[in-house]
Amino acid sequence: MRRIPNADDQSDDRFGYSCYALVFPVSGEIQEETDPIERASGSTRAKIPAHVTVKGTFCGIESLSDLRRLVRFITGNTRRFHISFEGAESVWRSAGGGLRVPARSEMQALHDALVAGIVPISTSAYIDDPYWPHMTYVQEVSVAALEQALQLVAHADFGDGFWADSIDLMGRVGKAHGGRWELIEQFPLAGTD
Fold this sequence. Notes:
This protein has about 190 residues and is an alpha+beta fold. The protein has helices spanning about 30-40, 65-75, 105-120, 145-155; strands at about 20-25, 50-60, 80-85, 90-95, 95-100, 125, 135-140, 160-165, 165-175, 180-190.
């Protein structure tokens, strides 16, 4: 697997994105719980709206059309499933934190299929396995913002999880600081109405 030393400073490619990620978008209810935490953080780092990562940051693709076709094929053959927060735990480090979510079999299988298809045609920002699914609360924040995030998370109710009805292909325009993540395409999972 090819790896880039730092995805933060990648330049935009010919498709207009510096890097990509595949994520499960969370439900609206969970988004409502995470928005105040994100706002309070004051972080200037580009952030994807609340999500659980399926395939982590990558770049160096030859064809955005081929990537979309590959993801569409894999998601079209994957039944929707529930992402459970049972057994999830808050994990904090020096400048951020998130909710670590257990990788159940359906989630692991989708991750494995996407990694197997994408790794040979891209450059990864970090090692994908072992799969460590999580929902980031905040990253790269001050000590004061981290303290506030801890308090907000302690009072948040994320519920028992959410249905994985689709995955989003996200592309970052620009660098990690000063750039922004955009939705390129949403891919429904099979069995989603």
